[in-house]
Amino acid sequence: MGAGHAHKLYRHGHSPVHALPAHCKLAAVFCFVLTVVATPRAAVWAFGLYALLIAAAAATARIPAAFLLKRLLIEVPFVAFALLMPFVAEGPQVHVIGLELSRSGLWGAWNILAKGTLGVAASVLLAATTELREVLLGLQRLKMPPLLVQIASFMIRYGDVITDEMRRMRIARLSRGFEARGVRHWGVLAKSAGALFIRSYERGERVHLAMVSRGYTGTMPVIDATTATRTQWTRAAALPLAALAVCLLGWTL
């Protein structure tokens, strides 16, 4: 975690949201998502207010709406699942545009779509304002199990290495005139996958030996002990506290 690692979800900026410590933003997003999940599904207006809170946070972070909406496409598989629920769920039926749909299925689909979309939007906003290295340091600061943090760090760091290895192997196949066109070429692709696995395993062993030779004993040194002031915690808590107020109104009204 000593070196920076930019990712496609991150958008460089100097907004107040970017300036907040990572562990403050992680705690704020976690509490916001819990509050959204705890909101009764019948309080439709509450989810509209949550969306306004996300929009206000995105505006404060100077994240364009197009950037945020494009990253929300990751939830398309869950949307497809939610759209099937009114057709497969049991219970009383209602007529909608000439179709017989399950009432409980409609509420279930709405519940998944509303809460899932808000959760993904909050996560995308977190990723857009926080570098991966800072996220890992924030998890470490929040006392997450060190082994899990290290595994995540290695996955992020060497994911690009393995991807580059796959790209080089693909170029090597193309340079030899190979092009996968059917089932008969699956054998070559399987051998390439096996070679990639062996290379990745050997690289992992070499990295581990290099770390041990430099004094690695199972824990990573903390080289950036980021702390947060009371003002920063207060700013980070604005989103989940506002969401909590909406949630309480949703249960009482």
TrEMBL record:
InterPro entries: ABC/ECF_trnsptr_transmembrane (IPR003339), ECF_CbiQ (IPR012809), ECF_transporter_component (IPR051611). The keyword Cytoplasm does not apply. The chain crosses the membrane at residues 20-38, 44-65. It is found in: Cell membrane. Its main location: membrane. It holds the Pfam family CbiQ. Keywords: Cell membrane, Membrane, Transmembrane, Transmembrane helix. It is a multi-pass membrane protein. PANTHER family: SLL0384 PROTEIN. This is Cobalt ECF transporter T component CbiQ.
